[in-house]
């Protein structure tokens, strides 16, 4: 059990339990507000990022979303939404490792989408920054 009273999800590598999830296989029609509404039932959301963003000028076949919860125990609950059909696709929800820095959190994930370039690449790690 973690200090928050729930069971945290240790990801190895000596990291503390994460409070960030990656949601993939999202419909291209999904919006940030829809994702916030869906995941706010599971715990207080500290930050939410949708890639590509709602106002992206190019069309993409799917999107990916990162949700940072205030309580790491919400991550375990959120994973139960895997395979839930949302709009027209089954969601895939996985925890992401966090690396704390003084002014921001960097999330490390393994995806085929390069969030910095908005291009599809071969499978390799990427970094997403939360905070200032």
Write the layout of secondary structure elements.
Elements lengths: L19 E8 L4 H9 L4 E7 L10 E8 L3 H6 L6 E2 L2 E2 L1 E9 L3 E11 L4 E13 L1
Antiparallel strand pairs: 1-3, 1-6, 2-3, 4-5, 6-7, 7-8
Q: Which features would summarize this protein structure in a list?
A:
Alpha-Beta Plaits; RNA-binding; 2 helices; RBD_domain_sf; RNA binding; 6-stranded antiparallel beta sheet; 132 residues; disordered N terminus; RRM_dom; mainly beta
Query: If you compute it from the alpha carbons, what radius of gyration comes out, rounded to the nearest whole angstrom?
Result: 14 Å
Amount of beta strand? over 45%
CATH fold-level topology:
Alpha-Beta Plaits
CATH level-two architecture? 2-Layer Sandwich
Major sheet characteristics: 6 strands, antiparallel
Overall geometry comes to globular
Euclidean distance between termini CA atoms: 30 Å
What is the count of DSSP helices, taking H or I runs of 4+ residues?
A: 2
The total tally of domains equals 1
CATH class: Alpha Beta
Total count of strands: 8
CATH superfamily: RRM (RNA recognition motif) domain
Give the mean pLDDT. Answer: 76
Topology as H/E string? EHEEHEEEEE
Strand order of the largest sheet: 2-3-1-6-7-8
Keywords: RNA-binding
GO cellular component, one term: nucleoplasm
GO molecular function: RNA binding
InterPro entries: Nucleotide-bd_a/b_plait_sf (IPR012677), RBD_domain_sf (IPR035979), RRM_dom (IPR000504)
């Amino acid at each position: 059990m973690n200090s928050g009273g729930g069971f945290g999800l240790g990801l190895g590598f000596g990291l503390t339990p994460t409070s960030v999830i990656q949601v993939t296989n999202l419909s291209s029609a999904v919006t940030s507000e829809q994702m916030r509404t869906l995941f706010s039932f599971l715990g207080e959301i500290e930050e939410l990022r949708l890639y590509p963003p709602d106002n992206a000028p190019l069309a993409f076949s799917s999107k990916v979303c990162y949700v940072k919860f205030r309580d790491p125990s919400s991550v375990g609950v959120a994973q139960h939404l895997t395979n839930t059909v949302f709009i027209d696709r089954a969601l895939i929800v996985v925890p992401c490792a966090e690396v704390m820095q003084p002014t921001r959190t960097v999330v490390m994930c393994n995806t085929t989408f390069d969030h910095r370039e908005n291009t599809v690449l071969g499978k390799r790690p990427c970094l997403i920054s939360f905070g200032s």
